[in-house]
Structure to design on (478 residues):
């Protein structure tokens, strides 16, 4: 699966180039944070990596092979939960993998303990708070033991303690060898979590650098302005 | 049913179909003295039927044979003639393009008619419910590598309480139906009579107290079913938010 080489992605919507020559190479370890203004193409890029949308042009090279049938999981900014219990929502992710019912339950209990939701296993998933729901979404992705985990602004509009809990889980997932690609607008979070940062603007990669260097000496003017909070908001037309 | 000396009747069947139906209705007493003529030698009455094939009727690509049956009684008193005609009625009515299936005035025909009426309504409501759920879950299920069939199972399970509405709508449509079940069922006592057709019959007979009583029972059944569905929905909303 790794190194994942992404070459010259193009994707248009409503006559606008959302991805415009997007190229990136990812190694097999660590956490890569995607930064960039709204409308830069971060979410579209993550969806194209996950296979949820097909780019108009471009190429994915998954370690010299085709896209793997499994091993890639994604957590969305607003995860959707079934009208069922917390436990059932976690077990759901194992159904396509044809895991036996007994093992599904065991793995679900284990992962719920690790995200701190074991005590709510029998509750309705739709009754969880925003932070709990996001932890449940992470558990649902984690239970499949993915090689690559895509996180699309998982801490947007969460309170600081929920953000802290999510970051703790993300670090724990990483220690198990899962490659993480995560988008965020939270620069502090990027500094806390990232091994490297990819700065995206206008559908293309402006800069890809280790986290310390990115924040200490951003190479591109756009990244410098973004860090200073001065990059003008880009209208989506 | 009156029993005149003779009368004509147009039937949507071929001569072969008519003869087959007649032999089923009054077995053992039908003969054909000459081509195009059938004779029924019932114990108390004798009937001669002269058959003349008329031009087919066309409805689009559908062609319906038309037969003119001239029925003439050769003997028998009024009561015997009425009894013979009553036995033949099914044979005459069950002709037509699907007549040989023998479905008319049977519970099977009523089930088919109700199904044809109810399924489109239930399908439309269920489709809207599941389609809305699919818009909600499409990305999640696709990201989890769900196949088409597994996605359908998940969506149906998730929408199970909303689909109760579709079931209730179909039930209400079926329980309130009068026209279709009357036409294909015939409103035969102890066979194809439903509560709604019984209410219609009693109203036309002028027995309003019985009609109202039946109507109240029907209303009570529908209210209980709706109450149960409402309770289930409330429970589901509390349980699954």
């Amino acid at each position: 699966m790794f190194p994942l080489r992404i070459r010259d992605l193009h994707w248009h919507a409503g006559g606008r180039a959302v991805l415009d020559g997007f190229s990136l190479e990812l190694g097999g370890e660590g956490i890569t944070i995607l930064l960039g203004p709204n409308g830069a193409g971060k979410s579209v890029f993550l969806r194209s990596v996950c296979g949820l949308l097909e780019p108009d042009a471009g190429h994915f090279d998954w370690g010299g092979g085709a896209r793997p049938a499994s091993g890639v999981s994604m957590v969305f900014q607003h995860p959707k939960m079934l009208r069922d219990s917390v436990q059932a929502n976690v077990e759901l992710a194992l159904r396509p993998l044809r895991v036996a019912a007994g093992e599904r339950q065991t793995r679900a209990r284990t992962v719920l303990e690790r995200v701190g939701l074991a005590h709510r296993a029998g509750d309705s998933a739709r009754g969880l708070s925003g932070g709990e729901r996001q932890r449940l979404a992470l558990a649902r992705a984690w239970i499949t033991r993915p090689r690559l985990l895509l996180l699309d602004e998982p801490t947007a509009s969460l309170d600081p303690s929920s953000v802290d809990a999510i970051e703790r889980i993300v670090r724990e997932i990483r220690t198990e060898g899962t490659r993480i690609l995560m988008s965020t607008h939270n620069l502090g979070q990027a500094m806390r979590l990232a091994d490297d940062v990819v700065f995206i603007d206008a559908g293309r990669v402006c800069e890809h650098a280790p986290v310390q260097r990115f924040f200490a000496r951003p190479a591109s003017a756009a990244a410098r302005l973004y860090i200073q909070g001065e990059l003008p908001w880009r209208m989506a037309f | 049913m009156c029993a005149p000396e003779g009368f004509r009747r147009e039937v949507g069947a071929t001569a072969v179909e008519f003869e087959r139906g007649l032999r089923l209705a009054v077995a053992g007493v039908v003969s054909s003295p000459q081509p195009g003529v059938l004779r029924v030698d019932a114990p108390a009455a004798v009937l001669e039927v002269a058959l003349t094939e008329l031009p087919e009727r066309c409805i689009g690509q559908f062609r319906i044979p038309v037969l003119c049956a001239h029925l003439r009684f050769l003997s028998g008193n009024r009561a015997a003639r009425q009894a013979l005609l009553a036995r033949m009625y099914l044979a005459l009515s069950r002709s037509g393009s699907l007549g040989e299936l023998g479905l008319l005035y049977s519970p099977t025909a009523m089930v088919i008619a109700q199904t044809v009426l109810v399924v489109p309504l239930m399908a439309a409501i269920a489709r809207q419910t599941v389609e809305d759920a699919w818009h909600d879950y499409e990305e999640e299920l696709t990201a989890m590598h769900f196949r088409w069939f597994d996605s359908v199972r998940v969506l149906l399970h998730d929408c199970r309480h909303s689909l109760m509405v579709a079931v209730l709508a179909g039930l209400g449509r079926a329980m309130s139906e009068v026209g279709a079940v009357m036409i294909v069922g015939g409103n035969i006592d102890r066979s194809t009579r439903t509560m709604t057709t019984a209410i219609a019959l009693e109203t036309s007979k002028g027995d309003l107290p019985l009609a109202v009583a039946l109507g109240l029972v029907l209303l009570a059944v529908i209210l209980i079913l709706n109450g149960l569905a409402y309770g289930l929905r409330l429970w589901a909303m509390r349980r699954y938010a």
Summary: Chain B has a mean pLDDT of 88.
